[in-house]
Design goal:
Blueprint: H1 4-9, H2 11-20, H3 26-66, H4 70-106, E1 126-131, H5 144-151, E2 154-155, H6 156-163, E3 169-170, H7 172-191, E4 196-197, E5 203-205, H8 206-211, E6 223-227, H9 231-247, H10 252-262, E7 269-273, H11 278-282, E8 289-291, E9 297-306, E10 325-335, H12 340-357, E11 362-366, E12 378-386, E13 391-400, H13 404-409, E14 412-414, E15 422-423, E16 425-433, H14 434-444, E17 452-453, E18 467-468
Parallel strand pairs: 4-9, 8-14
Antiparallel strand pairs: 1-11, 2-3, 5-7, 6-7, 9-10, 10-16, 11-12, 12-13, 13-16, 14-15, 17-18
Length: 472
């Protein structure tokens, strides 16, 4: 989420950022944000004035009673009664305008970094480097699904009967190869790259998804589970809202606390299957003040991931490129603002190391403003060479989101010697997508007879198996 103060003070940069991303009517969006912000501040000020006057009038009642001025005391009591009603209405108006303001800002993408190439789509991406040369075959290389099905170890038909399209059942040596890839990556990142392994929940709440910007904008891309809220939960939720109103004064603190609970009033309890481990890993610092001495904080996890929207209709319908369920090793870093640019380069290098160790050809590109993700201000994509397709395909995206996610999560740190806190910067990247790494190994290490050689880096994880062959 963008900082409203920054938007007010950098209106031209805000509009340019939206325009570079291809956002519709950026000038009108700015006008609406500023108008709603003005309305929000006016509502808060009016409520604060009413509360101040009620407090003053309450004291004046005591003074009038002490002076035996019954007429004035009665008038003041009547005024306090009116103010109480006005305050109740003002609090309701404050909640409403805060929700509208919060929802509007939540739908605005991050502003691109100054060095991000401007363009409407992937055609404007800029290649930074190529590593390794695509292998030359004396035969026509096959695609991964042709190889996997011929081996009898990749079953899409049974998966379709179990779950529908865009699922797969891996068997035997291919199942082990996928597991070996994940273990290899986790061992590499934890033992050599300084990441701490985490085993996070795969089901998360609404506010966790909001924190990393999967919600509300990308709701249709997610798998949602839901159950009805019990009466006790409804009562507890209402009590929580009342408690916030009672203990906080109108203003940013109350607004922030109310924003967490407003959408859930009298609603069903929703849980979401994580689309990436970025969601729980980044939210580890949610609503916390992190010790600056512990930054940068680096964590990794290997998890199943779930995406309801698996890509453009009719694209990659065969095989494992775009699936509703897939396995991925994720990298997340929490840094100070001063550390994040360097950390972005470091994280990308960690992802590249996986492919170097597997001896897989790849290239790294910087994404254009039109191809970049909603929360990112800069993204590097690592694309692995797939001989069966004769093309480079994405296997990792490493993004710096600046303080965009931190504001949504209220994740901060306190600089040494400073009085005030600052928002952390968050970064995430695939280190790498395990299913796509499996695809790359199958296609780059295939033999003419359809067998698959095991890369040297994976041999310790394969129980002595050096080649995958069809059962005889």
């Amino acid at each position: 989420m963008l900082d409203i103060k920054w938007i007010r003070e950098n209106a031209d940069a805000f509009v340019k950022g939206l325009a570079d991303r291809g956002f519709d009517e950026p000038q009108a969006t700015l006008k609406r944000i500023l108008s709603l912000d003005e309305q929000r501040r006016a509502t808060i000020q009016k409520l604060q004035d009413a509360q101040a006057r009620r407090n003053a009038a309450s004291k004046e009642i005591g003074q009038a009673m002490a002076a035996k001025d019954k007429k004035r005391a009665d008038a003041l009591k009547e005024e306090v009664g009116r103010l109480k009603t006005e305050i109740q209405q003002g609090e309701a108006a404050e909640r409403e305008v805060e929700k509208s303001f919060h929802d509007l800002l939540a739908a605005i993408p991050n502003t691109p970094a100054p060095d991000v190439p401007v363009g409407i789509d992937a055609e404007a991406n800029v290649e930074l480097r190529k590593v390794g040369k695509p292998p030359k075959f004396k035969f026509q290389p096959k695609q991964h699904f042709e190889l996997g099905e011929a081996l009898g170890l990749m079953d899409f038909d049974t998966a379709a009967k179990l779950s529908g399209a865009r699922f797969v059942v891996l068997k035997g040596a291919l199942a082990r190869l996928e597991r070996a890839l994940a273990q290899f990556m986790l061992d590499l990142h934890t033992s050599e790259h300084g990441y701490t392994e985490i085993n996070p929940p795969l089901l998360v709440r609404d506010d966790t998804m909001v924190g990393t910007a999967q919600l509300p904008k990308f709701k249709e891309d997610q798998f949602e589970t839901q159950r009805t809220m019990t009466e006790d939960e409804k009562r507890n939720l209402s009590a929580a809202i009342d408690a916030v109103v009672q203990r906080t004064k109108p203003g940013p603190k109350r607004s922030a606390e109310l924003a967490v609970v407003l959408d859930a009033r009298n609603a069903a309890v929703s849980y979401w299957l994580i689309p990436t481990a970025e969601v729980p890993l980044t939210n580890l610092v949610r609503e916390k003040i992190v010790d600056e001495a512990k930054l940068p904080m680096r964590v990794t996890a290997g998890t199943p991931c779930f995406r309801a929207e698996a890509g453009a209709a009719g694209k990659d319908t065969r095989g494992m490129i775009r699936q509703h369920q897939f396995f991925k090793v994720e990298l997340v870093s929490i840094t100070t603002p001063e550390q994040s640019a360097e950390e972005h380069e470091r994280m990308t290098a960690c992802g590249e190391t996986v492919l170097k160790r597997l001896d897989l050809p790849f290239r790294t590109v910087v994404l254009s403003t039109g191809d970049m993700g909603f929360a990112a201000n800069k993204t590097y994509d690592i694309e692995v060479w797939l001989p069966g397709q004769g093309a480079y395909r994405e296997i990792s995206s490493c993004s710096n989101t600046g303080d965009f996610q931190a504001r949504r999560m209220n994740a901060r740190f306190k600089p040494k010697g400073a009085k005030d806190t600052r928002f952390v910067h968050t970064l995430n990247g695939s280190g790498v997508a395990v299913g796509r790494a499996l695809i790359a190994v199958l296609e780059n290490y295939q033999e003419e007879d359809g067998s698959i050689r095991i890369p040297d880096a994976l041999l310790p994880y394969m129980g002595g198996l050096a080649k995958i062959e069809a059962a005889k």
